[in-house]
Amino acid sequence: MKMSREGKEMHDRLIDVMEPISYIRFDEKDGKNKVFHVTVTSKKLESVYETIWDYVMTYPCNYKCMFDNICIYRWEDETWKIHKEYILEK
To answer: Which residue from 3, 13, 53, 63 could staple onto 7, CB 3.0 to 4.6 Å apart?
Structure first.
C-alpha cells in the first residue's frame, strides 16, 4: 500500500512518542522507514486457515478505508518482491 502523507506523518509522530520508552525497539520493519502494507494472506496458511477464520469472524469489521492501489507480491530469494501493481482510479 502507499501510505498518504498524513498517515505517514501520524505514524512518524507515534514513533517519536514511543521511541523514548526503554523497552521498545523499532527496527527497519517497524520504524519511520517501514514499508506500509496490508496482508490479505500469507504462505503456509492452509493448515490453520479454518481456526484463524473462525477467530477473526468473532470480531465486527466496521471501518472506513480508502486505497488507490493493489500490489501482488511473490516470494523470491527469501523475500517478498512485487509481482504486479494495479493503480486504481480515484
So the answer is: 3
- In 3D, which of 52, 29, 31, 30 has the Cα closest to residue 40? 52
C-beta of residue 71 within 8 angstroms of C-beta of residue 82: yes
Q: pTM (2 decimals)?
A: 0.49
Q: What is the residue-wise DSSP string for 42-87? A: -TT-GGGHHHHHHHHTTS--------SEEEEEEEETTEEEEEEEEE
Q: Which residues contact 59 (CB under 8 A, 6 or more apart)?
A: none
Output the CA torsion sign for 41, 33, 20, 14.
negative
